[in-house]
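Because discrete structure vocabularies remain unfamiliar, we reproduce here a specimen of the format, pairing a chain with its fold in token form:
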Amino acid sequence: MFRNYLLTALRNFARHKLYSFINIAGLAVGLACVIFITLFIRDELSYDKWIPDTENLYLVHGILHFPGQGNFISGDAPFPVTVAMAAQIPEVTAQTHLMSERRTIGIGNRQFSELVDVVDSNFFRVLRLPLVEGTPASVFAQPESAVLSQAQARKYFGSQDPVDKTIMVDGVHPLTVTGVMRDLPHNTQLVADIAIPNTSRADDLSSSQKTDGWLSFDSGAFVRLAPGASPATVIRKLAPILDKDINVKKHLNVELPGGKVLDIALTRFTDVHMTADLGMTPSGSWTVVYGFGAIALLILLIACFNFTNLATARAMIRAREVSLRKVMGARRLQLIAQFLGESVLTAILALALALALVEILLPAYDAFLGRPITLDYRTSGPLLAQLAGVAVVTGLIAGIYPALVLSGFRPAATLRSGVKGASGSGLLRTGLVVLQFAISIGLGVAALVVFAQVRYAQHVDLGFARDGMVIVSDTDKMTPATRHSFTHALAANAAIEGVGQSSGAPFVDTVNMGTFNVPGGAEHAYIRLVDASPDLPKLYNMRLVSGRWLSLGRGNDINTGKDDPLQDGRNVLLSESAAQRLGWTAQTALGKSIVQTDTGKPLSVTVVGVMADVLMDGVRSHVQPTMLLYNPNGFDTFAVRVKAGELPQALAAIDSTWHRFASNVAIRRRFLGDMFDRLLVADRQQGAMFGLFVGIAIFIACLGLFGLAAFTAERRTKEIGIRKTFGARTRDIVWLLLWQFSIPVLIANVVAWPIAWFYLHRWLESYAYRITLNPLYFGLAGVTALAIAWVTVFAHALRVARSNPVHALRYE
């Protein structure tokens, strides 16, 4: 029986090639999309799950509360917090720290600017990263030691054994390589190529920060809990420790218990990647995971609708076959099994074709995502079994209704009348077309909105000019006099428009914060501090709203403190939002004094200018209140504006000048535009993926519409011949058929638009600065869907409309 069913199915495939191709191709493309999305989601959810013994490992991170000013959330934690947790809370069995720093690594006469992880000496015992040389207990037994990744060891020492070799940190700290760790895969939040212990003299974090920095977010922190221990219990026991050990009066000049100012949270280590802005690498998003999962399901549903539509439409063709089988004794259940078997066979063939498509396109998919996503048949047995299950279920869902329709024919009526049987519910077919296009239109609207938001983010006025700006970092290794000479040497080059100095790339990675209030006022403002030379605002084309810029010629504009960026009695600039936070307008802020309260000893500064706000974090976050100050002792970065068309010459001048003035430090230069573009990489990738899958969804829907139009045109051949005999013109016939398929698309717009508006409105709320949901996006998606439907149907309509009515009337 099975062999008979299989032969019948194969003969049907061969006899009706167009419909077989549409069904198999539609399902194959849909399943290929499902596989690609599944591989992406699997990769997103796999971060750090390959590291052993992470069940009870947690990231410790903090939330700083400022009365009346909101919260400051960080993926880091104050250094003393986890030390106190391990010492005073029994449920905490171990703790460790990690702080990433940019350092110059010297190997002989070669220099490299590298990101170095400064860690506790027990780091490899708590985070059990794989070591190929050395043991977790021994690699940091000596303070002046280092662990390299395999790639880093090859980079420095080639094929030589790196153990016991020496690397030089910042030209003054020799460290001995004591271990080599396996290269970390891409699916980790860690970026460990070089690790050194914080017991080394190369560690820049002072002992006072390690013991007293209760409100300084300066390192990543991890704790291991005892089996069965509850994170909530640990946090509850931590609260009195914070109240006891944090001197809020000293740091913020307010009388509050420590637990009211600092909140500590624990996030399971393997969940960090999917928790926004906590890891060291760009975070994932549950919204993206659920969104693409929904897209995969919708694409699969569209492919199933195609199969159901075409199968029920073609039921009339198989009416005589079903009737003859029933006359020969076939029971309805046998017929249902036969047709479901054909449907499942179609889905399995589609799965095989889908896997072939995935194999062909996977390298391009990997390159697009920038990560190695693989489908290894030897290790992906569970995934392949799930995909086979999806194919079978898809076949059953797509085929169940056609099977019920086909098996329900009454043989006596069919054979006696010569009628080929019912074709199933025309209402159902119309409903499925509506659903197909509703999904496609909804996804199309979403794609337009995503692209528009990304474009808006790329072109929004950030408050400064980022193009043509080169950032040169790590200049704190120079003396102030050397930095001054370097600046003048660069500015004299014909390819360079100007040079400024700052602490960090001032509008990208500035993280210095201060707490201020108006003298005598109770409320405190949390303000970001930007340390910049007086010529920097002009270099960045920033806008002054009121007052004046800082000047080299005014003594009170210059801060000369070494430990704190500000000094008492100096002048500063505020951003508009900072002035508003303190209760002033841009005009009334001029000449006012504000007090910094988090320095142990309050100090007063005077506002001499107010500048326009700067969107340092792009469009996702609200503008940060900002203070601009001038302290040459805090500079560690040059900002170099390059003249248009002079980039190669300018880069060569920067490199040669650097080597003249800082020959013992590896140069590290970046383009400011690229640094900001990285904020949008994930959005652009997701938008492109979204657009691609939307296009595929529309393609599958049109594939089904094409087959349905061909069948409908064939079934209405006699009707069209009669209409032409009575004088109908070609364009009348074409419009008749186009209108028949336009109605479901128009109804689909009515279904899709409100649903799309609801979800897109919520998605846009994740952006502080965003576009509005313009009705044009909805209209454009709807008109495009209608135009695509017309193009799909037009060829069939025109062919039938132009046919000779004589042949049409002979049709039956």
